[in-house]
Design a protein that fits this description.
Shape: globular
Bound molecules: NADP nicotinamide-adenine-dinucleotide phosphate
Structural class: alpha/beta
Number of helices: 6
Number of strands: 8
Strand content: 15-25%
Distance between the termini: 40 Å
Oligomer: single chain
CATH architecture: 3-Layer(aba) Sandwich
CATH topology: Rossmann fold
Helix content: 40-55%
Number of domains: 1
CATH class: Alpha Beta
Strand order of the largest sheet: 3-2-1-4-5-6-7-8
Amino acid sequence: MSGARSVLVTGANRGIGRAVAELLSRSDWRVVVGARDGDEAAAVAAALGARPVAIDTTDPDSVKRAREAIGPVDALVNNAGVLLDAGTDPLSVPLDLVERTLAVNLLGSWRVCQEFVPAMVERGWGRVVIVSSGTATFHNGLFAGAPGYSVSKTALNGLTTMLAAQTRNSGVLVNAVNPGMTRTRMMPKAQREPADAARDIVHAVTLPDDGPTGAFLRGREQIEW
Ligand SMILES: NC(=O)c1ccc[n+]([C@@H]2O[C@H](COP(=O)([O-])OP(=O)(O)OC[C@H]3O[C@@H](n4cnc5c(N)ncnc54)[C@H](OP(=O)(O)O)[C@@H]3O)[C@@H](O)[C@H]2O)c1
């Protein structure tokens, strides 16, 4: 086994997550391709020379099984996410859509952090990237046209600051990244290529030991929450 660092990317079967897995695979990381469909994880992992794992971030047993299968990782990219309520508004959005959104975007990422971050703290090194969104910033105003999605990412930003505070000086850096509007199944009309968003996320995975923690990053810059 090489001395390369290991990284788990959730939702790595397509879109931004796949692009992140691909970029890290080319940069001497031991990548674990996480996907809720184990066959899709296996297919992408085979194409990238990575390792697959089935992980549905909303299912506690699935997340636990994934950790037992792959063991501790040095870095974690919490990428899995859903956009279910585009075109609604806060006064009329069906709250079951908000609930399902929070289950994946907030609680799913939180669950995966609870499973993998304690071992990073114990080992004295780790990088955690939370894939957030420009829809979620108080600085610019939350995007009300997808209210459950926006508020789920604002909550993730809050989680980022709390995890960063709890792990400060442990060797673990926890940051949120705004990848920008990127052409994926979630945003089919966006201009940005997944590979460009992936570069920004990989920057946060590969931060030096004196890099920021508890920051909101866009590209290589720190931005307002
Ligand atoms: N595209 C953008 O413009 C944009 C902008 C800002 C932030 N983001 C964020 O970037 C991340 C990736 O999105 P994307 O644009 O690449 O969208 P995407 O192509 O729709 O990919 C979403 C990924 O999340 C996975 N996923 C959903 N629910 C899951 C669950 N319960 N467990 C495990 N995986 C699950 C999906 O798996 P399945 O294939 O099994 O459904 C898929 O791999 C998301 O967090 C999104 O909010 C995207």
